[in-house]
Design brief:
Number of strands of chain C: 10
Largest sheet of chain B: 2 strands, antiparallel
Order of helices and strands of chain B: HHHHEEHHHHHHHH
Number of helices of chain B: 12
Helix content of chain B: over 70%
CATH architecture of the largest domain in chain C: 3-Layer(aba) Sandwich
Strand order of the largest sheet of chain B: 1-2
Shape of chain C: globular
CATH class of the largest domain in chain C: Alpha Beta
Chains: A mainly alpha, B mainly alpha, C alpha/beta
Distance between the termini of chain B: 58 Å
Number of domains of chain C: 2
Radius of gyration of chain C: 18 Å
Distance between the termini of chain C: 32 Å
Helix content of chain C: 25-40%
Number of strands of chain B: 2
Structural class of chain C: alpha/beta
Strand content of chain B: under 5%
CATH superfamily of the largest domain in chain C: P-loop containing nucleotide triphosphate hydrolases
CATH topology of the largest domain in chain C: Rossmann fold
Structural class of chain B: mainly alpha
Oligomer: heterotrimer
Radius of gyration of chain B: 19 Å
Largest interface: A-B, 45 and 48 residues
Chain lengths: 314, 295, 241
């Protein structure tokens, strides 16, 4: 048990030390990557464990952004309170929309979530207190160090939560729902309630990430807060890294962020096509994500990839 | 002369209906391809909107580059998109067709992202409109303006839907497609080659998307990014209309078109997307029974 | 301990079941037979909560349950197997059964480790002990049926609904399953069995209930029912079984 967590703890400590070892740009890149990893972990709970792929989790991120921004910019409340407000907004949205939408299966659920983010963005753009289309400006705080460590702390918390989920009765229920929802129901799992709980948990982490991001960049508006490319990214990172695993989303997020940074500095628009290509290849050759590759490789060597194709082709 | 002018409110209503129906026919055509692929292959193609977009660019370049009239260019674009769709299904999508629905969602999602960015690379983000000389023409009927290009687009859309209906019902291939949709094993036993049928169907879906794209370019603007919205709208309409029932899908499209036109004129044009998505969510939540039958 | 009154189910114009009424006594085995499409699985789905009745009542241990969702009925002690089997494919055989122990009767275990232990016991009981760590989808046909059974048992139900657990098995396997079901009954469970294998169901059941086109056409001891001319005509054919 300790042997597995030791490398992870070392990695976390190394990450925490980055602001003293790396450049300013690296720290900024780090904050972005870490927040993305948190979003991916949040998605992992509802998409990876429960098998309900939400393509609209950015709505929770956006609500977290706005909750924090409104609390701080309009009501001059401290950052901690702002974060809490954002988290509550995200959770409330998850419950209110989750109850009807989570009763849908598969593709219907996925596309309903697509609509969710767009609708919320349009609504916020018309709300006075949210600054409408112009956006809001938060109080300024200089100090990337704080944001970096705070984001890292959130990621650690999210990962620890996912680790708990993977071991708990709650997680067992979620996986049962994913594997066969009918059977899960007759075996005593209150599927609707648990799906909503999974979505809410996911929403809270997304909202907290949004809140941190808002305070960090100081200025928000509907387009950037409900950024739809985030949906793309968090799904891809988790699926690539390993849905339903503890470290998969983190690995996927860091790896893909790094690669896209490298590509972006050389060939800018390729980044988008790159993400698309990654996911196409990943779904075909490593449908269970990166985390499964090592054990799969040990079992079958290079045939692992061909085997994945063979099992799912026409 | 003889007929008095109708009251302004009635005129407005009439205009909404006309706008809505004409646009709706086109929407129905867009959804046709998606519904067909969904009903037969059980693939929800999240890249469908991008296929529409590509078809639009096809017709655009045929018109501006080779001077071919857009309506004449439609069959060419359809042929090109058919080949593209056929290859896509035959060589890529068939690799994951037996895996979980999530994987087909993800892979078409990935394709959509790729196609969007590749289009951006190739065609830049500029707005393109297909503007044949008759684009701005319209004529008056009882005080309601009927624009010529959307009317022609509507006519083509209905025609294609009827053609698809006929092909599915009367030709041997069409029956093979329907058989495969209902029961793959039984169809195989009757000598149907699923690889070919699946690829054909997907190609047909892409061809229809291509036609819709070309028509869309005449009534609106094409950018690499229109894909996502069009996919979502096609999805709503496909569900409304009943997946692989072509004429039902067209009716669904008209319904959405009228709803959007009403929103644009009575509320605010910026709300039209909200209406589509809102309608989608309401639909999904309020009609689960019909959906569970297919799911 | 269990009663169904006037149970009816309609699907968009098709009446799948009409006015079914019967009782179950504690510890009894009731066999449910009838031609395909008679409504047997529909009846089981209504009892387990997977489907909602169009009319009628269901009573279990003194409570009316026809409005309860499936997971609540599982908590009360109703377990079922599915004719079209529904394993959890990516999970191990052990974890498949452990789900039942975790969430079953009275809300199940809180502790995953203890649930796994109980799952092991049920796997031994049903003869799947050696497959404990294999993936559920790696099992062959007959073993999958046993897995369905083990999963339902892990719920520790008072009422067990078995839907064609012997389909596709050869005679030796059928006998094994019959013995297993008798063992289960001796543990105090009440069982409702849907089956087509006449030999098995005749020996196993205390009583038989016959469905045809959604209607109850006969009920009684196996001897009575199997000689009833209506049953013979509708289901058995003219030959004596």
């Amino acid at each position: 048990m300790t042997r597995r967590w030791l490398p992870v703890a070392v990695a976390a400590a190394a990450l925490a030390a980055v602001p003293w070892l790396g450049s300013e740009t690296l720290v900024q890149y780090g904050i972005n990557a870490i927040l993305l990893a948190t979003l991916a972990q949040g998605w992992n709970i509802i998409g990876g464990f429960t098998g309900y792929p939400s393509f609209g989790n950015s709505v929770f991120y956006g609500l977290g952004t706005y909750g924090t921004a409104i609390a701080m910019a309009q009501y001059h409340l401290p950052f901690g309170v702002g974060l809490a407000v954002g988290a509550v907004l995200g959770a409330a949205c998850a419950v209110v929309f989750g109850l009807p939408i989570l009763r849908l299966r598969g593709p219907y659920f996925a596309i309903a979530t697509l609509g969710l983010s767009a609708v919320m963005s349009a609504i916020i753009a018309n709300v006075e207190i949210a600054g409408k289309n112009i956006g809001l400006i938060l109080p300024l705080f200089r100090g990337d160090l704080l944001f970096y460590e705070l984001s890292l702390g959130l990621l650690v918390l999210a990962t620890a939560t996912v680790a708990w989920v993977s071991r708990s009765r709650f997680g067992a229920g979620l996986v049962a729902i994913r594997e066969n929802e009918d059977a899960a129901q007759v075996m005593g799992i209150d599927t609707t309630r648990w799906k909503v709980m999974a979505l809410t948990l996911s929403a809270v982490f997304s909202a907290l990430a949004g809140g941190i991001h808002a305070y960090w960049i100081t200025f928000i508006d509907p387009a950037s807060a409900f950024d739809s490319t985030l949906n793309v990214k968090m799904v891809i990172m988790t699926v690539f890294g390993g849905p339903g695993t503890v470290l998969g989303p983190v690995v996927g997020a860091f790896l893909l962020s790094a690669i896209s940074e490298v590509l972006a500095s050389n060939v800018s628009t390729v980044a988008g096509a790159f993400y698309g290509l990654v996911i196409v290849l990943a779904v075909v050759f490593i449908p269970r994500g990166l985390m499964d590759v090592s054990s799969g490789f040990r079992r079958m060597g290079w045939r692992y990839f061909a085997d994945n194709v063979r099992r799912h082709r026409l | 002369m003889g007929i008095p002018d109708p009251a302004p409110a009635v005129l407005l209503l009439g205009q909404i209906l006309v706008n809505g129906v004409l646009l709706g026919g086109l929407y129905g055509l867009m959804a046709l391809g998606m519904g067909l692929v969904w009903g037969v292959l059980n693939i929800v193609n999240l890249a469908h909107g991008s296929l529409i977009m590509l078809g639009g660019y096809c017709v655009y370049f045929l018109y501006t580059g080779a001077g071919i009239d857009p309506f004449a260019a439609l069959p060419l674009a359809m042929a090109a998109m058919f080949c593209f769709g056929y290859a896509l299904q035959r060589f890529l999508l068939s690799l994951i067709i037996r895996s979980a629905m999530l994987n087909t969602l993800l892979i078409t999602f990935g394709l959509d992202v790729m196609l969007t960015f590749l289009a951006q690379l190739a065609f830049s983000a500029d707005l393109r409109t297909i503007n044949p000389p008759y684009a701005g023409d319209n004529f008056d009927v009882l005080g309601v303006t009927i624009p010529v290009a959307p009317l022609a687009a509507f006519a083509v859309a209905v025609l294609l839907a009827a053609a698809l209906s006929a092909v599915l019902a009367r030709t041997r291939t069409g029956r093979a497609i329907r058989a495969t949709a209902q029961n793959l094993t039984a169809a195989r036993l009757h000598g149907v080659n699923p690889r070919r049928i699946y690829a054909l169907t997907f190609g047909a879906g892409a061809a229809l998307a291509g036609a819709a794209g070309g028509l869309y370019g005449m009534v609106s603007q094409i950018t690499p990014y229109v894909g996502v919205t069009l996919t979502a709208k096609s999805f709503v309409i496909a569900i409304l209309g009943g997946l692989d029932r072509p004429l039902g899908v067209v009716v669904g499209g008209v319904a959405l078109g009228v709803a959007e036109a009403a929103t644009a004129l009575y509320l605010d044009p910026t709300y039209t997307n909200v209406i589509s998505f809102g309608l989608l969510v309401v639909l999904l939540v309020a009609r689960p029974a019909q959906l569970f039958e297919r799911a | 301990m269990f009663e169904v009154r006037d149970l009816t189910k309609r699907f968009r114009g098709l009446t799948a079941l009409s006015s079914i009424s019967f009782e179950l006594r504690e510890g009894e085995i009731l066999g449910l037979i009838g031609p395909n499409g008679a409504g047997k699985t529909t009846l089981v789905s209504l009892i387990s909560g997977t489907l909602v009745p169009s009319g009628g009542e269901i009573h279990f241990q003194g409570r009316r349950i026809d409005k309860l969702p499936p997971h609540r009925r599982a908590h009360l002690g109703i377990g079922r197997t599915f004719q079209v089997m529904k394993p959890f494919p990516a999970l191990s055989v052990l974890d498949n059964v452990a789900i039942g122990a975790l969430f079953g009767a009275a809300g199940g275990e809180r502790n995953r480790a203890r649930a796994r232990e109980r799952a092991r016991e049920w796997l031994e009981f049903t003869g799947l002990g050696r497959y404990v760590d294999q993936r559920a989808d790696a099992l062959g046909g007959p073993d999958r049926k046993r897995l369905e059974l083990a999963k339902a048992l892990a719920l520790h139900p008072r009422l067990l609904l078995l839907d064609e657990v012997m389909a596709g098995l050869h005679p030796v396997e059928v006998d094994e399953v019959v013995a297993l079901i008798q063992k289960i009954r001796s543990q105090g469970m009440t069982i409702l069995v849907i089956e087509h294998v006449m030999r098995a169901i005749r020996n196993l059941s205390d009583r038989l209930l016959v469905l045809h086109h959604g209607q109850q056409i006969a009920e009684g001891s196996p001897r009575q029912v199997l000689e009833d001319p209506r049953v013979v005509e509708a289901y058995l054919g003219k030959r004596r079984v």
